[in-house]
Design a protein that fits this description.
single chain; alpha/beta; seven-stranded parallel sheet; three-stranded mixed sheet; 12 helices
């Protein structure tokens, strides 16, 4: 049975990846989920899998060398999928230090633990061991209107403390690949959206606020462009890179869904009006009048756009979920999980670990 160590598995993308892997592989794999359960880590995301015999949750911080080495010592880890990271740009502007500690030092701890567990006496590595570092398109900086796309060869040019910390962790992984021939890949994805996303991010924030008749904050002129990737497509891409990617390579994962932020908001409002049943009082709350322009974010990158040509040509992956379909799926999920959103926005989700694991 192949054993996967997933860091940050209680977060948005990590939990979706775990669900995807169990749907695909069932009982033929084992997943060890390591998460320190910061504000964005939510074990309620994994209720459906927590009783599986081939799933283990370990509460640990990736910066804790002893804890991480203990996990490698207890389990014969075949794959590492490293999601764990501080990821919200606004938080990084207010508190850069924690982003460096988690994203840079935490990645270094993970690399060293995997290297120690997998390295042979002659400096080679055990067969079929792989480390996948999940990163972001934000490490490439900003594209101006009329520019093309981010490619794997695009120089790193981060502009926020968050993206600088992720670029640093990317470079560490590359250094281990180049220095030790460490068996790793790096993936850089565009903006994800879908189930279980913490409502500080744009799409769940707009959905939640609109349904409550609250203001919909828009930075600057609202014309900043992002490429949007449905999270299930991302999970599939990560699995395919783990199985088919050339060791040492970087792969960009994009959704071919470039949209201005203000366009995203209008699509969400229109889709909510289409999907809310007649007679639902929330139909009266969902309105463009809620859109409120606010002071622009410091260092706000104008445009991100990923070219996923390499992953398509080498591995055969391409995004399957177009944006309007993905938004409908996401809104439907939120309709069906109103209690989850209530718990997240009230902070009650943080009680779940204590109830489940400390009773």
């Amino acid at each position: 049975m192949r054993t996967y160590l997933v860091t940050g598995g209680a977060g948005f993308i990590g939990s979706n990846y775990i669900h995807y892997m169990f749907r695909k592989y069932g009982d033929t794999i084992r997943i060890i989920n390591v998460d320190c359960l910061t504000y964005a880590g939510n074990l309620e995301n994994l209720k459906a899998v927590e009783d599986r015999d081939n799933y283990v949750f370990v509460k640990a911080d990736i910066r804790d060398r002893e804890a991480i080495e203990k996990i490698f010592g207890e389990y014969d880890i075949d794959r590492v999928v490293h999601f764990a990271a501080e990821s919200h740009v606004d938080r990084s502007i207010r508190n850069p230090e924690v982003f460096v500690e988690t994203n840079v030092l935490g990645t270094l701890v993970m690399l060293n633990a995997a290297k120690k567990a997998w390295e042979n006496p002659d400096g080679s590595f055990k067969e079929n061991k792989k480390f996948l570092h999940v990163s972001t398109d934000e490490v490439y900086g900003s594209l101006e209107e009329g520019d093309t796309y981010f490619y794997e060869t695009t120089p790193l040019d981060p502009h926020s403390p968050y993206s600088a910390s992720k670029a640093s962790s990317d470079m560490l992984v590359k250094a281990y690949i180049d220095t030790y021939h460490f068996p790793a890949n790096i993936t850089n994805c565009s903006n994800n959206y879908g189930p279980y996303q913490f409502p500080e991010k744009l799409i769940p924030l707009i959905i939640n606020n609109a349904l409550q008749g609250k203001k919909l904050p828009v930075y600057g002129d609202g014309k900043n462009v992002r490429d949007w990737l449905y999270v299930d497509d991302h999970a599939k891409a990560i699995d395919m890179v783990q199985e088919q990617g050339r060791l040492g390579e970087r792969y960009n994962i994009g959704g071919h869904n470039e949209k201005q932020n203000i366009e995203i908001i209008h699509i969400i409002l229109d889709t909510l009006q289409e999907m809310l049943p007649k007679g639902d009082p929330r139909r009266e709350l969902v309105s463009e009048k809620l859109i409120t322009y606010v002071e622009d974010r410091k260092g706000h990158d104008r445009r991100y756009a990923i070219a996923p040509d390499k992953i398509k040509e080498e591995i055969g992956w391409y995004p399957e979920t177009m944006f309007r379909e993905g938004i409908r799926l996401t809104i439907q999920w939120f309709f069906e999980h109103e209690e989850w959103m209530k718990n997240v926005t009230s902070g009650d989700y943080q009680k779940y670990y204590a109830e489940m694991y400390q009773a």
